Amino acid sequence: MRFRANPRSILKLEMEIIQSPHEVQKRVNHWRCEGKSIGFVPTMGALHEGHLSLARAARRDCDVVVASVFVNPTQFGTNEDLNKYPRPLERDCDLLRQCGCDLVFTPEEKDLYFQDGSGAQSWVEVEILGEVWEGTVRPGHLRGVATVVAKLFHIVRPSRAYFGEKDYQQLKVIERLARDLFFDVEIVPIETVRENDGLALSSRNAYLVSDERQAAANISRALFHGVELAKNGERDVARLRAEMQRVCGSQPLIALQYLAIVDAQTLAPLDKISDAPARILIAARVGQTRLIDNAGIN
Amino acid sequence: MRFRANPRSILKLEMEIIQSPHEVQKRVNHWRCEGKSIGFVPTMGALHEGHLSLARAARRDCDVVVASVFVNPTQFGTNEDLNKYPRPLERDCDLLRQCGCDLVFTPEEKDLYFQDGSGAQSWVEVEILGEVWEGTVRPGHLRGVATVVAKLFHIVRPSRAYFGEKDYQQLKVIERLARDLFFDVEIVPIETVRENDGLALSSRNAYLVSDERQAAANISRALFHGVELAKNGERDVARLRAEMQRVCGSQPLIALQYLAIVDAQTLAPLDKISDAPARILIAARVGQTRLIDNAGIN
User: What residue numbers bound the domain in which A228 lies?
Assistant: First the structure.
Protein backbone atom coordinates (compact mmCIF):
# COMPACT_ATOMS: atom_id res chain seq x y z
CA MET A 1 0.00 0.00 0.00
CA ARG A 2 1.40 3.34 -1.00
CA PHE A 3 0.94 5.08 2.33
CA ARG A 4 3.04 2.43 4.07
CA ALA A 5 6.07 3.25 1.94
CA ASN A 6 6.76 6.40 3.93
CA PRO A 7 5.67 5.78 7.50
CA ARG A 8 7.54 8.86 8.79
CA SER A 9 5.20 11.27 7.04
CA ILE A 10 2.24 9.52 8.63
CA LEU A 11 3.90 9.65 12.05
CA LYS A 12 4.37 13.38 11.63
CA LEU A 13 0.72 13.92 10.94
CA GLU A 14 -0.18 11.73 13.86
CA MET A 15 1.92 13.41 16.54
CA GLU A 16 -0.08 13.30 19.75
CA ILE A 17 -0.28 16.15 22.23
CA ILE A 18 -1.17 14.89 25.73
CA GLN A 19 -1.56 16.84 28.97
CA SER A 20 -2.27 13.96 31.38
CA PRO A 21 0.71 12.18 33.00
CA HIS A 22 -1.28 8.96 33.29
CA GLU A 23 -2.26 9.02 29.60
CA VAL A 24 1.41 9.45 28.69
CA GLN A 25 2.36 6.55 30.99
CA LYS A 26 -0.21 4.37 29.21
CA ARG A 27 1.17 5.21 25.74
CA VAL A 28 4.73 4.68 26.88
CA ASN A 29 4.04 1.34 28.60
CA HIS A 30 2.46 0.16 25.36
CA TRP A 31 5.61 1.12 23.40
CA ARG A 32 7.90 -0.43 26.02
CA CYS A 33 5.98 -3.70 25.84
CA GLU A 34 6.50 -3.70 22.08
CA GLY A 35 10.24 -3.49 22.78
CA LYS A 36 10.60 0.02 21.35
CA SER A 37 13.34 2.38 22.49
CA ILE A 38 12.07 5.75 23.68
CA GLY A 39 14.03 8.97 23.16
CA PHE A 40 13.03 11.85 25.43
CA VAL A 41 13.59 15.59 24.97
CA PRO A 42 12.49 17.60 28.03
CA THR A 43 12.03 21.32 27.27
CA MET A 44 10.46 24.48 28.67
CA GLY A 45 9.19 25.33 25.18
CA ALA A 46 10.09 28.53 23.27
CA LEU A 47 12.03 26.14 21.10
CA HIS A 48 15.08 27.10 19.05
CA GLU A 49 17.56 25.15 16.92
CA GLY A 50 19.30 23.95 20.11
CA HIS A 51 16.17 22.09 21.23
CA LEU A 52 15.49 20.87 17.72
CA SER A 53 19.00 19.38 17.49
CA LEU A 54 18.07 17.30 20.58
CA ALA A 55 14.83 16.15 18.95
CA ARG A 56 16.66 15.26 15.72
CA ALA A 57 19.28 13.25 17.64
CA ALA A 58 16.48 11.40 19.45
CA ARG A 59 14.72 10.76 16.12
CA ARG A 60 17.96 9.35 14.67
CA ASP A 61 18.67 7.07 17.67
CA CYS A 62 15.28 5.85 18.92
CA ASP A 63 12.11 4.09 17.79
CA VAL A 64 9.81 6.61 19.44
CA VAL A 65 10.45 10.28 20.28
CA VAL A 66 8.68 11.98 23.19
CA ALA A 67 9.20 15.68 23.98
CA SER A 68 7.82 17.60 26.94
CA VAL A 69 6.95 21.29 27.05
CA PHE A 70 6.61 22.55 30.63
CA VAL A 71 7.74 25.83 32.15
CA ASN A 72 8.69 24.38 35.54
CA PRO A 73 7.91 26.90 38.29
CA THR A 74 10.08 25.23 40.96
CA GLN A 75 13.26 26.02 39.04
CA PHE A 76 12.57 29.78 38.99
CA GLY A 77 13.58 32.05 41.88
CA THR A 78 11.08 34.53 43.33
CA ASN A 79 12.55 37.47 41.38
CA GLU A 80 13.10 35.60 38.15
CA ASP A 81 11.27 35.59 34.82
CA LEU A 82 8.68 32.81 35.38
CA ASN A 83 5.74 35.01 34.37
CA LYS A 84 7.30 36.58 31.31
CA TYR A 85 8.96 33.35 30.09
CA PRO A 86 7.74 32.88 26.47
CA ARG A 87 5.09 30.15 25.88
CA PRO A 88 4.44 29.80 22.12
CA LEU A 89 2.95 26.30 22.48
CA GLU A 90 1.36 25.99 19.04
CA ARG A 91 4.57 26.98 17.26
CA ASP A 92 6.58 24.61 19.51
CA CYS A 93 4.33 21.69 18.59
CA ASP A 94 4.66 22.50 14.87
CA LEU A 95 8.43 22.48 15.16
CA LEU A 96 8.46 19.19 17.07
CA ARG A 97 6.13 17.65 14.49
CA GLN A 98 8.57 18.70 11.76
CA CYS A 99 11.39 16.94 13.66
CA GLY A 100 9.40 13.69 13.60
CA CYS A 101 8.36 13.76 17.22
CA ASP A 102 5.68 11.16 18.11
CA LEU A 103 4.26 12.59 21.33
CA VAL A 104 4.42 15.94 23.08
CA PHE A 105 3.68 15.92 26.79
CA THR A 106 2.22 19.30 27.83
CA PRO A 107 1.31 19.08 31.53
CA GLU A 108 0.10 22.05 33.55
CA GLU A 109 1.47 22.85 36.99
CA LYS A 110 -1.35 21.01 38.79
CA ASP A 111 -0.60 17.86 36.77
CA LEU A 112 2.99 17.59 38.05
CA TYR A 113 2.71 19.31 41.45
CA PHE A 114 -0.19 18.23 43.62
CA GLN A 115 -1.84 20.83 45.79
CA ASP A 116 -4.08 19.16 48.31
CA GLY A 117 -3.75 21.30 51.40
CA SER A 118 -1.09 19.29 53.22
CA GLY A 119 1.54 21.40 51.52
CA ALA A 120 4.00 18.52 51.69
CA GLN A 121 6.15 18.03 48.67
CA SER A 122 8.79 15.59 47.52
CA TRP A 123 12.13 16.88 46.27
CA VAL A 124 15.16 15.43 44.58
CA GLU A 125 18.52 17.12 44.93
CA VAL A 126 22.19 16.60 44.23
CA GLU A 127 24.63 17.80 46.89
CA ILE A 128 27.76 19.77 45.91
CA LEU A 129 27.26 19.46 42.11
CA GLY A 130 23.89 21.19 42.57
CA GLU A 131 25.14 23.70 45.14
CA VAL A 132 28.08 25.41 43.38
CA TRP A 133 27.96 28.06 40.58
CA GLU A 134 24.31 28.18 39.44
CA GLY A 135 23.37 26.73 42.84
CA THR A 136 24.89 29.76 44.55
CA VAL A 137 23.46 32.41 42.21
CA ARG A 138 20.06 30.71 41.85
CA PRO A 139 19.37 28.85 45.14
CA GLY A 140 16.81 26.08 44.63
CA HIS A 141 17.10 26.21 40.83
CA LEU A 142 18.86 22.89 40.35
CA ARG A 143 16.70 21.22 43.01
CA GLY A 144 13.69 22.29 40.94
CA VAL A 145 15.32 20.90 37.79
CA ALA A 146 16.29 17.58 39.44
CA THR A 147 12.79 17.16 40.88
CA VAL A 148 10.91 17.80 37.65
CA VAL A 149 13.33 15.61 35.67
CA ALA A 150 12.72 12.74 38.13
CA LYS A 151 8.95 13.16 37.68
CA LEU A 152 9.29 13.33 33.87
CA PHE A 153 11.57 10.27 33.78
CA HIS A 154 8.99 8.27 35.77
CA ILE A 155 6.20 9.36 33.45
CA VAL A 156 8.00 9.01 30.11
CA ARG A 157 10.35 6.11 31.09
CA PRO A 158 12.87 6.97 28.38
CA SER A 159 15.63 4.66 27.16
CA ARG A 160 17.65 7.79 26.31
CA ALA A 161 17.17 11.39 27.41
CA TYR A 162 18.75 14.30 25.53
CA PHE A 163 20.18 17.38 27.25
CA GLY A 164 22.08 20.32 25.75
CA GLU A 165 25.66 21.08 26.84
CA LYS A 166 24.62 24.75 26.95
CA ASP A 167 23.33 24.09 30.51
CA TYR A 168 26.49 22.25 31.46
CA GLN A 169 26.00 22.13 35.22
CA GLN A 170 22.40 20.96 34.75
CA LEU A 171 23.70 18.18 32.50
CA LYS A 172 26.23 17.07 35.14
CA VAL A 173 23.57 17.18 37.88
CA ILE A 174 21.25 15.00 35.82
CA GLU A 175 24.00 12.53 34.89
CA ARG A 176 24.85 12.22 38.57
CA LEU A 177 21.22 11.88 39.60
CA ALA A 178 20.57 9.17 37.03
CA ARG A 179 23.59 7.21 38.20
CA ASP A 180 23.12 7.68 41.97
CA LEU A 181 19.43 6.79 41.95
CA PHE A 182 19.72 3.99 39.36
CA PHE A 183 17.39 5.53 36.80
CA ASP A 184 17.39 3.09 33.88
CA VAL A 185 18.15 5.77 31.28
CA GLU A 186 21.11 6.85 29.18
CA ILE A 187 21.79 10.60 29.39
CA VAL A 188 22.90 11.87 25.97
CA PRO A 189 24.67 15.27 25.89
CA ILE A 190 24.25 17.33 22.71
CA GLU A 191 26.62 20.11 21.63
CA THR A 192 25.55 23.73 22.02
CA VAL A 193 24.10 25.35 18.89
CA ARG A 194 25.33 28.92 18.25
CA GLU A 195 24.47 31.98 16.19
CA ASN A 196 26.95 33.01 13.47
CA ASP A 197 28.71 35.37 15.89
CA GLY A 198 29.06 32.61 18.50
CA LEU A 199 26.21 33.50 20.87
CA ALA A 200 24.80 30.28 22.34
CA LEU A 201 21.13 29.80 21.44
CA SER A 202 18.82 30.38 24.41
CA SER A 203 15.13 31.13 24.72
CA ARG A 204 16.21 34.10 26.85
CA ASN A 205 18.09 35.69 23.91
CA ALA A 206 14.66 36.98 22.85
CA TYR A 207 14.83 39.41 25.80
CA LEU A 208 17.95 41.14 24.40
CA VAL A 209 17.51 44.55 22.75
CA SER A 210 19.77 45.44 19.83
CA ASP A 211 22.92 46.78 21.55
CA GLU A 212 22.62 44.06 24.21
CA ARG A 213 22.41 41.43 21.49
CA GLN A 214 25.67 42.73 20.00
CA ALA A 215 27.38 42.89 23.38
CA ALA A 216 26.25 39.35 24.30
CA ALA A 217 28.47 37.85 21.59
CA ASN A 218 31.50 38.80 23.67
CA ILE A 219 30.62 36.05 26.17
CA SER A 220 31.34 33.34 23.62
CA ARG A 221 34.29 35.35 22.24
CA ALA A 222 35.83 35.29 25.71
CA LEU A 223 35.18 31.53 25.97
CA PHE A 224 36.77 30.73 22.62
CA HIS A 225 39.70 33.00 23.44
CA GLY A 226 40.26 31.05 26.68
CA VAL A 227 40.00 27.69 24.88
CA GLU A 228 42.49 28.89 22.25
CA LEU A 229 45.02 30.12 24.83
CA ALA A 230 44.78 26.80 26.70
CA LYS A 231 45.24 24.92 23.44
CA ASN A 232 48.38 26.96 22.82
CA GLY A 233 49.83 25.91 26.16
CA GLU A 234 48.61 28.39 28.78
CA ARG A 235 48.05 26.30 31.94
CA ASP A 236 47.69 29.03 34.52
CA VAL A 237 44.03 29.55 35.43
CA ALA A 238 44.52 33.05 36.91
CA ARG A 239 46.07 34.27 33.63
CA LEU A 240 43.37 32.56 31.52
CA ARG A 241 40.61 34.14 33.62
CA ALA A 242 42.22 37.58 33.41
CA GLU A 243 42.42 37.30 29.61
CA MET A 244 38.78 36.25 29.32
CA GLN A 245 37.62 38.94 31.74
CA ARG A 246 39.40 41.49 29.55
CA VAL A 247 37.37 40.34 26.52
CA CYS A 248 34.08 40.52 28.44
CA GLY A 249 35.08 43.80 30.10
CA SER A 250 35.52 45.48 26.71
CA GLN A 251 31.71 45.49 26.56
CA PRO A 252 30.31 47.66 29.36
CA LEU A 253 26.85 46.08 28.96
CA ILE A 254 28.18 42.71 30.23
CA ALA A 255 28.21 42.26 34.02
CA LEU A 256 29.96 38.97 34.86
CA GLN A 257 28.44 36.88 37.67
CA TYR A 258 31.10 34.20 37.56
CA LEU A 259 33.84 33.08 35.20
CA ALA A 260 35.28 29.80 36.43
CA ILE A 261 37.61 27.12 35.11
CA VAL A 262 36.63 23.83 36.69
CA ASP A 263 37.12 20.09 36.58
CA ALA A 264 34.71 18.89 33.87
CA GLN A 265 33.19 16.19 36.11
CA THR A 266 33.24 17.54 39.68
CA LEU A 267 32.93 21.26 38.73
CA ALA A 268 35.57 22.02 41.41
CA PRO A 269 37.64 25.13 40.51
CA LEU A 270 41.15 24.53 39.19
CA ASP A 271 44.40 26.46 39.74
CA LYS A 272 46.24 24.83 36.87
CA ILE A 273 44.99 23.15 33.71
CA SER A 274 46.23 19.53 33.57
CA ASP A 275 45.63 16.93 30.87
CA ALA A 276 42.23 16.10 32.40
CA PRO A 277 39.05 17.52 30.86
CA ALA A 278 38.28 21.00 32.21
CA ARG A 279 35.37 23.33 31.54
CA ILE A 280 35.09 27.11 31.41
CA LEU A 281 31.77 28.30 32.89
CA ILE A 282 30.48 31.85 32.41
CA ALA A 283 27.36 33.51 33.81
CA ALA A 284 26.66 37.17 33.08
CA ARG A 285 23.95 39.76 32.98
CA VAL A 286 23.51 41.64 29.74
CA GLY A 287 21.14 44.43 30.67
CA GLN A 288 18.27 42.73 32.52
CA THR A 289 18.92 39.36 30.87
CA ARG A 290 20.92 36.60 32.52
CA LEU A 291 22.94 34.41 30.14
CA ILE A 292 25.18 31.38 30.73
CA ASP A 293 27.63 29.64 28.42
CA ASN A 294 30.53 27.19 28.66
CA ALA A 295 33.24 25.47 26.66
CA GLY A 296 35.56 22.48 27.13
CA ILE A 297 39.34 22.32 27.49
CA ASN A 298 41.02 18.94 26.71
CA MET B 1 6.67 -34.52 34.57
CA ARG B 2 6.32 -35.00 38.29
CA PHE B 3 8.46 -32.06 39.38
CA ARG B 4 6.26 -29.66 37.38
CA ALA B 5 3.26 -30.54 39.50
CA ASN B 6 4.48 -28.41 42.39
CA PRO B 7 6.35 -25.44 40.95
CA ARG B 8 6.35 -23.55 44.28
CA SER B 9 8.64 -26.09 45.92
CA ILE B 10 11.08 -25.75 43.04
CA LEU B 11 10.93 -21.95 43.25
CA LYS B 12 11.81 -22.19 46.92
CA LEU B 13 14.87 -24.26 46.23
CA GLU B 14 15.84 -21.89 43.46
CA MET B 15 15.62 -18.64 45.39
CA GLU B 16 18.42 -16.44 44.10
CA ILE B 17 20.59 -14.23 46.30
CA ILE B 18 22.12 -11.36 44.30
CA GLN B 19 24.37 -8.53 45.46
CA SER B 20 24.71 -6.56 42.21
CA PRO B 21 22.07 -3.92 41.39
CA HIS B 22 22.60 -4.41 37.68
CA GLU B 23 22.15 -8.19 37.93
CA VAL B 24 18.86 -7.60 39.77
CA GLN B 25 17.76 -5.09 37.10
CA LYS B 26 18.45 -7.72 34.43
CA ARG B 27 16.38 -10.40 36.21
CA VAL B 28 13.55 -7.97 36.83
CA ASN B 29 13.47 -6.64 33.26
CA HIS B 30 13.19 -10.23 32.08
CA TRP B 31 10.19 -10.81 34.38
CA ARG B 32 8.58 -7.50 33.38
CA CYS B 33 8.88 -8.41 29.69
CA GLU B 34 7.08 -11.67 30.45
CA GLY B 35 4.24 -9.57 31.89
CA LYS B 36 4.79 -10.77 35.45
CA SER B 37 3.79 -8.66 38.45
CA ILE B 38 6.60 -8.07 40.92
CA GLY B 39 6.01 -7.78 44.66
CA PHE B 40 8.77 -6.11 46.65
CA VAL B 41 9.59 -6.33 50.36
CA PRO B 42 12.41 -3.95 51.37
CA THR B 43 13.97 -4.83 54.75
CA MET B 44 17.02 -4.17 56.89
CA GLY B 45 17.18 -7.88 57.73
CA ALA B 46 16.99 -9.30 61.28
CA LEU B 47 13.62 -10.55 60.10
CA HIS B 48 10.69 -11.26 62.38
CA GLU B 49 7.06 -12.24 61.79
CA GLY B 50 6.26 -8.64 60.83
CA HIS B 51 8.60 -8.81 57.83
CA LEU B 52 7.43 -12.30 56.98
CA SER B 53 3.81 -11.14 56.90
CA LEU B 54 4.88 -8.64 54.21
CA ALA B 55 6.59 -11.41 52.22
CA ARG B 56 3.55 -13.67 52.52
CA ALA B 57 1.23 -10.88 51.33
CA ALA B 58 3.52 -10.29 48.36
CA ARG B 59 3.58 -14.04 47.63
CA ARG B 60 -0.24 -14.10 47.70
CA ASP B 61 -0.65 -11.05 45.41
CA CYS B 62 2.20 -11.22 42.87
CA ASP B 63 3.80 -13.49 40.28
CA VAL B 64 7.32 -12.85 41.53
CA VAL B 65 8.51 -11.85 45.02
CA VAL B 66 11.71 -9.87 45.54
CA ALA B 67 12.99 -8.94 49.02
CA SER B 68 15.97 -6.77 49.85
CA VAL B 69 18.18 -7.01 52.93
CA PHE B 70 20.25 -3.85 53.42
CA VAL B 71 21.11 -2.01 56.64
CA ASN B 72 20.95 1.47 55.13
CA PRO B 73 23.57 3.69 56.78
CA THR B 74 22.04 6.99 55.62
CA GLN B 75 18.96 6.46 57.78
CA PHE B 76 20.99 6.14 60.99
CA GLY B 77 22.05 9.18 63.02
CA THR B 78 25.66 9.54 64.19
CA ASN B 79 24.87 8.31 67.72
CA GLU B 80 22.50 5.55 66.66
CA ASP B 81 22.87 1.77 66.49
CA LEU B 82 24.20 1.29 62.92
CA ASN B 83 27.17 -0.79 64.03
CA LYS B 84 25.36 -3.01 66.50
CA TYR B 85 22.26 -3.49 64.30
CA PRO B 86 21.83 -7.30 63.96
CA ARG B 87 22.79 -8.85 60.60
CA PRO B 88 21.86 -12.58 60.58
CA LEU B 89 21.89 -12.79 56.77
CA GLU B 90 21.88 -16.57 56.41
CA ARG B 91 18.91 -16.98 58.74
CA ASP B 92 17.09 -14.12 56.96
CA CYS B 93 17.53 -15.83 53.59
CA ASP B 94 16.25 -19.13 54.99
CA LEU B 95 13.13 -17.40 56.31
CA LEU B 96 12.52 -15.61 53.00
CA ARG B 97 12.95 -18.90 51.12
CA GLN B 98 10.32 -20.47 53.37
CA CYS B 99 7.93 -17.63 52.49
CA GLY B 100 8.31 -18.45 48.78
CA CYS B 101 10.52 -15.50 47.93
CA ASP B 102 12.12 -15.71 44.45
CA LEU B 103 15.02 -13.29 44.77
CA VAL B 104 16.82 -11.63 47.67
CA PHE B 105 18.78 -8.50 46.84
CA THR B 106 21.70 -8.13 49.27
CA PRO B 107 23.72 -5.07 48.20
CA GLU B 108 26.63 -3.68 50.20
CA GLU B 109 27.01 0.02 50.93
CA LYS B 110 29.33 0.59 47.94
CA ASP B 111 26.76 -0.98 45.60
CA LEU B 112 24.05 1.60 46.45
CA TYR B 113 26.18 4.62 47.44
CA PHE B 114 29.00 5.53 45.09
CA GLN B 115 32.18 6.87 46.61
CA ASP B 116 34.32 8.43 43.91
CA GLY B 117 36.01 11.33 45.66
CA SER B 118 33.64 14.06 44.50
CA GLY B 119 31.58 13.49 47.63
CA ALA B 120 28.46 14.57 45.76
CA GLN B 121 25.33 12.61 46.47
CA SER B 122 21.74 12.59 45.29
CA TRP B 123 18.97 12.75 47.88
CA VAL B 124 15.22 12.34 47.87
CA GLU B 125 13.15 13.98 50.59
CA VAL B 126 9.59 14.76 51.52
CA GLU B 127 8.94 18.15 53.11
CA ILE B 128 6.69 18.46 56.20
CA LEU B 129 5.63 14.76 56.30
CA GLY B 130 9.31 13.87 56.61
CA GLU B 131 10.16 16.71 58.98
CA VAL B 132 7.69 16.22 61.86
CA TRP B 133 7.83 13.59 64.68
CA GLU B 134 10.57 11.12 63.65
CA GLY B 135 12.02 13.88 61.47
CA THR B 136 12.51 16.04 64.58
CA VAL B 137 13.90 13.32 66.85
CA ARG B 138 16.01 11.68 64.11
CA PRO B 139 17.04 14.45 61.68
CA GLY B 140 17.98 13.02 58.27
CA HIS B 141 16.42 9.62 59.07
CA LEU B 142 13.46 9.86 56.70
CA ARG B 143 15.59 11.50 53.99
CA GLY B 144 17.84 8.41 54.20
CA VAL B 145 14.78 6.15 53.99
CA ALA B 146 13.27 8.04 51.02
CA THR B 147 16.58 8.02 49.17
CA VAL B 148 17.27 4.31 49.57
CA VAL B 149 13.67 3.44 48.70
CA ALA B 150 13.95 5.48 45.47
CA LYS B 151 17.14 3.59 44.56
CA LEU B 152 15.55 0.22 45.42
CA PHE B 153 12.39 1.03 43.43
CA HIS B 154 14.52 1.86 40.36
CA ILE B 155 16.49 -1.36 40.70
CA VAL B 156 13.61 -3.73 41.53
CA ARG B 157 10.85 -1.91 39.54
CA PRO B 158 8.07 -3.44 41.65
CA SER B 159 4.40 -3.47 40.70
CA ARG B 160 3.59 -3.50 44.44
CA ALA B 161 5.79 -2.67 47.41
CA TYR B 162 4.91 -3.80 50.94
CA PHE B 163 5.52 -1.68 54.05
CA GLY B 164 4.51 -2.33 57.65
CA GLU B 165 2.16 0.05 59.47
CA LYS B 166 4.51 -0.26 62.46
CA ASP B 167 6.61 2.51 60.87
CA TYR B 168 3.55 4.62 60.14
CA GLN B 169 5.26 7.90 59.32
CA GLN B 170 7.70 6.08 57.02
CA LEU B 171 4.71 4.52 55.26
CA LYS B 172 3.08 7.93 54.75
CA VAL B 173 6.36 9.44 53.48
CA ILE B 174 6.75 6.65 50.95
CA GLU B 175 3.12 6.85 49.81
CA ARG B 176 3.58 10.59 49.27
CA LEU B 177 6.92 10.14 47.52
CA ALA B 178 5.50 7.51 45.16
CA ARG B 179 2.58 9.76 44.25
CA ASP B 180 4.52 13.05 43.97
CA LEU B 181 7.30 11.62 41.83
CA PHE B 182 5.03 9.35 39.74
CA PHE B 183 6.68 6.08 40.71
CA ASP B 184 4.71 3.40 38.88
CA VAL B 185 4.17 1.28 42.01
CA GLU B 186 1.33 0.49 44.39
CA ILE B 187 2.28 0.95 48.05
CA VAL B 188 0.61 -1.78 50.14
CA PRO B 189 0.38 -1.20 53.91
CA ILE B 190 0.41 -4.30 56.12
CA GLU B 191 -0.91 -4.39 59.68
CA THR B 192 1.54 -4.45 62.60
CA VAL B 193 2.29 -7.90 64.01
CA ARG B 194 2.39 -8.02 67.84
CA GLU B 195 3.58 -10.26 70.65
CA ASN B 196 0.91 -11.80 72.90
CA ASP B 197 1.20 -8.90 75.37
CA GLY B 198 0.76 -6.36 72.55
CA LEU B 199 4.37 -5.28 72.00
CA ALA B 200 4.86 -4.46 68.31
CA LEU B 201 7.46 -6.71 66.69
CA SER B 202 10.70 -4.87 65.94
CA SER B 203 14.24 -6.01 65.26
CA ARG B 204 15.25 -3.65 68.08
CA ASN B 205 13.22 -5.63 70.65
CA ALA B 206 16.25 -7.93 70.77
CA TYR B 207 18.10 -5.16 72.64
CA LEU B 208 15.61 -5.25 75.55
CA VAL B 209 16.72 -6.94 78.77
CA SER B 210 14.10 -8.75 80.83
CA ASP B 211 12.56 -5.95 82.94
CA GLU B 212 12.72 -3.61 79.95
CA ARG B 213 10.90 -6.19 77.85
CA GLN B 214 8.10 -6.29 80.42
CA ALA B 215 7.93 -2.52 80.69
CA ALA B 216 7.83 -2.10 76.88
CA ALA B 217 4.40 -3.73 76.71
CA ASN B 218 2.93 -0.64 78.35
CA ILE B 219 3.51 1.34 75.13
CA SER B 220 0.93 -0.73 73.27
CA ARG B 221 -1.28 -0.87 76.38
CA ALA B 222 -1.36 2.92 76.37
CA LEU B 223 -2.19 2.91 72.63
CA PHE B 224 -5.05 0.45 72.96
CA HIS B 225 -6.37 2.35 75.99
CA GLY B 226 -6.44 5.54 73.90
CA VAL B 227 -8.16 3.78 70.99
CA GLU B 228 -10.75 2.35 73.38
CA LEU B 229 -11.48 5.70 75.03
CA ALA B 230 -11.89 7.33 71.61
CA LYS B 231 -14.19 4.51 70.51
CA ASN B 232 -16.29 5.16 73.62
CA GLY B 233 -16.73 8.80 72.68
CA GLU B 234 -13.79 10.74 74.13
CA ARG B 235 -13.00 13.43 71.52
CA ASP B 236 -10.69 15.66 73.53
CA VAL B 237 -7.08 15.07 72.56
CA ALA B 238 -5.60 16.61 75.74
CA ARG B 239 -7.62 14.19 77.91
CA LEU B 240 -6.75 11.21 75.68
CA ARG B 241 -3.05 12.06 75.84
CA ALA B 242 -3.14 12.49 79.61
CA GLU B 243 -4.79 9.07 79.99
CA MET B 244 -2.21 7.39 77.76
CA GLN B 245 0.69 9.17 79.47
CA ARG B 246 -0.63 7.84 82.78
CA VAL B 247 -0.42 4.25 81.46
CA CYS B 248 3.12 4.75 80.14
CA GLY B 249 4.14 6.64 83.27
CA SER B 250 3.20 3.71 85.49
CA GLN B 251 6.39 2.09 84.15
CA PRO B 252 9.42 4.14 85.24
CA LEU B 253 11.60 2.40 82.60
CA ILE B 254 9.62 4.10 79.80
CA ALA B 255 10.78 7.61 78.81
CA LEU B 256 8.31 9.06 76.29
CA GLN B 257 9.80 11.07 73.40
CA TYR B 258 6.45 12.01 71.90
CA LEU B 259 2.86 10.90 72.23
CA ALA B 260 0.80 12.59 69.52
CA ILE B 261 -2.70 12.29 68.09
CA VAL B 262 -2.57 13.37 64.47
CA ASP B 263 -4.47 13.49 61.20
CA ALA B 264 -3.87 10.05 59.65
CA GLN B 265 -2.81 11.53 56.28
CA THR B 266 -1.05 14.83 57.02
CA LEU B 267 0.31 13.83 60.48
CA ALA B 268 -0.67 17.31 61.72
CA PRO B 269 -1.54 17.28 65.46
CA LEU B 270 -5.23 17.43 66.35
CA ASP B 271 -7.04 19.21 69.21
CA LYS B 272 -10.27 17.27 68.80
CA ILE B 273 -10.99 13.88 67.27
CA SER B 274 -13.49 14.24 64.40
CA ASP B 275 -14.94 11.52 62.17
CA ALA B 276 -11.84 11.62 59.95
CA PRO B 277 -9.15 8.96 60.37
CA ALA B 278 -6.67 9.89 63.11
CA ARG B 279 -3.55 8.13 64.33
CA ILE B 280 -1.89 7.89 67.72
CA LEU B 281 1.91 7.97 67.42
CA ILE B 282 4.22 7.03 70.29
CA ALA B 283 8.01 7.10 70.50
CA ALA B 284 9.78 6.15 73.71
CA ARG B 285 13.06 5.00 75.14
CA VAL B 286 13.00 1.84 77.20
CA GLY B 287 16.44 1.77 78.78
CA GLN B 288 18.87 2.37 75.92
CA THR B 289 16.42 1.10 73.30
CA ARG B 290 14.24 3.39 71.22
CA LEU B 291 10.82 1.99 70.27
CA ILE B 292 7.95 3.41 68.22
CA ASP B 293 4.37 2.26 67.83
CA ASN B 294 1.04 3.60 66.57
CA ALA B 295 -2.65 2.82 66.25
CA GLY B 296 -5.60 4.14 64.26
CA ILE B 297 -8.74 5.95 65.40
CA ASN B 298 -11.77 5.91 63.01
Answer: 203-297
